[in-house]
Amino acid sequence: MSHHRAVFRTHRRMLLAGSACALLLPPAFAQRPKARIGWLGWVGAMGASASPLALAAFRNGLTDRGWTEGRDLELLVRSGDRKGSAQLASELLKLDVDLLVAQGPMVFGAKTVSGDKPLVFNINGDPVEAGLVSSVSRPGGMLTGVTALSEELAGKRVELLREAMRKRTKMAVIANEMHPGVAIERQATYAAAKRLGLELSWHPLKAQSDLEGALAAIARSGAEGLLAIPDNLIYSQSRPLAEFAAAQRLPSISGSSEFADAGNLMSYGPSTRGYYHQMAGMVDRVLRGARPGDLAIEQARDIEFVLNAKAARAIKLDLPPELQLRADRRID
After folding, report:
1. Model's pTM, two decimal places?
2. Rounded to an integer, what distance in angstroms lies between the CA atom of residue 109 and that of residue 85?
3. Do the beta carbons of residue 307 and residue 254 sit within 8 Å?
């Protein structure tokens, strides 16, 4: 764990490792007149709208890299939930796709059936701890992808919430203890809290049924701010968390813009467009001959800060002007 945890600290090191280690796939792969990509969209925590938004960003990324659907590219789309991911992946493989792209947790089912087909994925957590790849710098096998996990992002969320809290110092953190990479997030969050002089309480859950108890514990702790560790389970509870934060008058933050859109105060993490545009770049490299297992897992590069001014007004929070000016998107 210690080796790959260190790798997450430096974006550039991973990207250079992936570029230096690319090898060619067999010539027959590159000679096909039209590339066929199987897309496994996830309809899950964010609702039905998330998969189409991601797919549109992915398509734009391919277009920007010179691929044209109908001319030299065919994109076959299937969407569903994690339970059906293996079946949907099998259907795409029967259509003789050259490569599979798995959104979020769809990778777990896809991996069980993909065999020697390249598989590009994205994940919120640690792909090594999740059992997807053998290492971050050299994944091995036929898988590679992009992760939203970053010690730097975890620390930055603490900083932003600290600014929103002004002179208040009690911060509660809610996290899915089953999330691969939660130990990395926890260590980075505690380190940032200590550096900023914050009193931090950790509130774990393992399933949706644990949420009520976790929120009750947060209320008892006297928390003055709420940080939700990015994870699909947490995101699926964005609205209940927003309602709780509003009732307790707590500024809150997590990693996805959907968290802020659901009524929470802030989000700081990968933008949907940038995330899937970046995935398209990895797919482009594989289609042009790179072996997936030699491409380092990349960290999301395009980061956005979303601020919900409406949520701030609801909890009667006077946001610092400098914090407002830094927002990439403002919800009024």
Report:
1. 0.86
2. 5
3. no
